[in-house]
Hints:
Strand order of the largest sheet: 1-2-3-10-5-8
Mean pLDDT: 95
Number of strands: 11
Amino acid sequence: MSYPEPRYLGDNGAVSAAFRPADTPPELVRGANRTHYLATHATTGGDFGLYRVDMGPHAPGPGTHFHRTISESFFVLSGSVRLYDGERWLTGGAGDFLYVPPGGLHAFHNDTGDPASMLMLFAPGAPREEYFEQVAEKARRGGQEFADFLVRHDSWFVEEGPDGTARG
């Protein structure tokens, strides 16, 4: 394996780092759930997107889905998060990590009475902010508008069985 081609060609480095203080308010608040946009595709030049998701007790998550163009990774910071790895549901606790390559089935939720927090990493970076901000309303409306929204945001949902695992 080798390093990618250089993208910075200067000789002295650049002042280009971005700092986000821990006390920065979340960009998205929905009930007891909060999403912090730590590093978006815009701030990383499309390299990755990193988000902290703080879930309230019994917070639902997305159904089983996959992405064609991006990988998604989950790192549990606190609490207990149920993670679906495409085959089975796992209980992730602080320090647990799940990597899902493009095409990999996955889902998550908090099914406990306690809050939970995790980092979500998308690579390469995609404009996920609009997805996070509008998915609930688009889903409520349904129809072709919702179907088009999902395609635009590389989110391909699959049918689930009664146990919450993908039917295939």
